[in-house]
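Q: What residues go here?
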């Protein structure tokens, strides 16, 4: 970990750092990133993990409040529940301010949550003002300073216990929640332009609404080479859908941090993704033959080119995901929490030397 004044080393606390996470006890449908983060933090001897409730956030003792998606805290179903959650969130923020507790925020998204009310925008800005250190999942993300980079962990351990399918030559797969920005319509159109009976397309995941589902079915036009599974996939079903494919295609119109790409790589399948700076770096990181990129909207040539390249030069080894182990991620988070505590409690010129800025990912090799 680097800082303007040189290598930053913060002495361990006399006791474990007590960290309140902004999520509750993980459930089977919880994002695996959250569940694995909870496990990695719980395994750190210097960290005492506390899971979120409004009662704990307002009344219990903790050193750090680690926030992922603030809107999940202050947003409620219906106007009354929403107002109550907003008021309780404001109480939490007042407690953080008066108690000089450290707030650490992981920036999963590069843009604020859309559709916020004025009150919610005020709360979100308040979270920003109180944040001691921002965590970004790659060093391309622009985050307010001070910021630390901790790479998104892999899913190898998560899916290790599930049986894998056999890769089917010519089978292309898309999986995950089907949203408008993910460009599944473009993928179907590009696939149909290939006119190759040796290829098949599998689209697995729950659409956000019935209209999007109907649009995809209409675009497929009854093609027997396109298979839809419109539902939330269990882990076992996801592993089967991915590992039965020869190539995973994520035709997003916009992509920044992609857990789906890491899922495919963790399961040993190559991915075709948008040509963003983050994905180009991922390509360099994991080694040749695993990540292929396309410019603009996906086209038929992008799919055939990726398949041909993968077949002509198959990778010799599994993708290199060493830098994304959850052991490293847990230790890196603990260092950030310790630094955030020190920074939050420091005043005057002395605090300037504790600013955390990363020239290399904390989780890197």
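A:
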């Amino acid at each position: 970990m680097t800082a303007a004044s040189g290598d930053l080393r913060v002495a361990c606390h006399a006791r474990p750092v007590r960290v309140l996470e902004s999520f509750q006890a993980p459930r089977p449908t919880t994002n695996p990133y959250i569940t694995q983060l909870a496990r990695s933090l719980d395994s750190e001897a210097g960290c005492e993990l506390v899971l979120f409730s409004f009662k704990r956030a307002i009344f219990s003792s903790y050193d750090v409040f680690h926030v992922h998606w603030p809107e999940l805290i202050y947003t409620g179903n219906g106007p009354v529940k929403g107002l109550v959650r907003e008021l309780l969130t404001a109480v939490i923020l007042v407690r953080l301010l008066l108690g000089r507790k450290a707030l650490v925020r992981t920036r999963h998204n590069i843009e604020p949550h859309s559709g916020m009310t004025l009150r919610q925008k005020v709360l979100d800005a308040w979270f920003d003002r109180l944040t001691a250190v921002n965590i970004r999942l790659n060093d391309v993300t622009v985050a307010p300073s001070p910021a630390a980079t901790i790479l998104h962990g892999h899913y190898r351990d998560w899916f290790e216990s599930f049986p894998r399918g056999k890769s089917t030559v010519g089978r292309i797969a898309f999986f995950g929640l089907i949203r408008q920005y993910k460009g599944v319509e473009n993928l179907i159109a590009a696939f149909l332009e290939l006119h190759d009976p040796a290829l098949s397309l599998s689209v697995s995941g729950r659409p956000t609404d019935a209209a999007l589902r109907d649009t995809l079915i209409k675009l497929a036009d009854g093609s027997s080479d396109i298979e839809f599974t419109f539902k939330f996939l269990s882990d076992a079903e996801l592993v089967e859908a991915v590992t039965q494919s020869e190539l995973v295609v994520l035709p997003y119109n916009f992509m920044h941090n992609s857990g789906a790409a890491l899922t495919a790589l963790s399961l040993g399948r190559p991915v075709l993704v948008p040509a963003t700076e983050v994905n180009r770096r991922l390509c360099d990181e994991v080694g040749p033959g695993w990540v292929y990129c396309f410019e603009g909207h996906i086209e038929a040539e992008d799919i055939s080119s990726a398949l041909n390249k993968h077949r002509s030069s198959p990778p010799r080894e599994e993708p290199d995901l060493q830098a994304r182990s959850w052991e490293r991620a847990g230790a890196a988070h603990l260092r950030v929490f310790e630094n955030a505590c020190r920074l939050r409690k420091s005043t005057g010129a002395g605090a300037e030397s504790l600013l955390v800025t990363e020239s290399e990912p904390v989780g890197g090799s």
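A: Context that may help when evaluating the design: The chain has two domains: 2-153+325-354, 157-320. The CA atoms of residues 160 and 334 lie 26 Å apart.
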